[in-house]
């Protein structure tokens, strides 16, 4: 059976090995930086713990900061993959939310495709390291950029179209607002509580913004 344009082919053996190496580098880097501090952790220490050479680490990541914020990028890629699997129902914000729920269900059940522990380690490191915090700003603001091409294909438009950017921006704001308002203590977050917080924010958005605006009269 041919692969659907919305369902990319599964990676081959070589690609899977590369992903495993990358995953190991991220895993040990987060453990070391979370335990010992970002500034005190060296690329050489990360390489030794990951059982690779420093050159290999630098081949996968341009900087130590890139390793630490990798879970943010991975979060966006995982969400995009789940969005590809959603039926087209004519409401892409709802589909994006459904994709988020499906992704988080997999995270809670199987700790895949991204470990929630990684995500929380990243945010702890961001909180205490000005260097990582400054580097993370572009990733935090654009972590949904991976969904752009998928949304565009589903909508029959381009990734830079206003409606694509608006849907991505609204959902990003919903997630951020939910976590900040309902679960501002990073150390107490769990995947389950994150889902509850984002769901609360999404439902509040629909209640206060989407529904009234859809039926509002113009003076």
From TrEMBL:
It comes from the Bacteria. GO terms for molecular function: DNA-binding transcription factor activity; transcription cis-regulatory region binding. Signal peptide: none annotated. Residues 19-79 form the HTH tetR-type domain. Keywords: DNA-binding, Transcription, Transcription regulation. Residues 42-61 bind DNA. PROSITE patterns: HTH_TETR_1 (PS01081), HTH_TETR_2 (PS50977). SUPFAM superfamilies: Homeodomain-like. InterPro entries: DNA-bd_HTH_TetR-type_CS, Homeodomain-like_sf, HTH-type_TetR-like_transc_reg, HTH_TetR, MftR_C. This is TetR family transcriptional regulator. The lineage of its organism: Bacteria, Bacillati, Actinomycetota, Actinomycetes, Mycobacteriales.
């Amino acid at each position: 059976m041919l692969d659907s344009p919305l369902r990319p082919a599964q990676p081959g053996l070589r690609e899977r090995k590369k992903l495993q190496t990358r995953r190991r580098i991220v895993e040990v880097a987060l453990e070391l930086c979370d335990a010992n501090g970002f500034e005190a952790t060296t690329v050489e220490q990360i390489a030794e713990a990951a059982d690779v050479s420093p050159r290999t680490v630098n081949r996968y990541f341009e900087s130590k900061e890139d390793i630490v914020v990798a879970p943010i990028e991975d979060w966006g890629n995982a969400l995009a993959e789940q969005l590809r699997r959603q039926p087209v129902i004519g409401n892409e914000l709802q589909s994006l939310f459904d994709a988020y729920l499906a992704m988080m269900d997999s995270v809670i059940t199987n700790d895949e495709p991204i470990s929630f522990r990684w995500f929380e380690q990243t945010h702890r490191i961001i909180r205490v390291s000005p260097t990582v915090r400054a580097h993370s700003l572009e990733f935090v603001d654009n972590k949904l950029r991976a969904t752009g091409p998928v949304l565009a294909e589903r909508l029959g438009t381009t990734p830079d179209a206003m409606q694509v950017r608006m849907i991505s921006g609204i959902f990003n704001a919903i997630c951020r607002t939910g976590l900040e308002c309902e679960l501002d203590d990073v150390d107490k977050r769990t995947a389950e509580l994150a889902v509850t917080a984002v769901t609360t924010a999404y439902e509040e958005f629909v209640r206060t913004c989407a529904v009234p605006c859809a039926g509002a009269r113009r003076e």
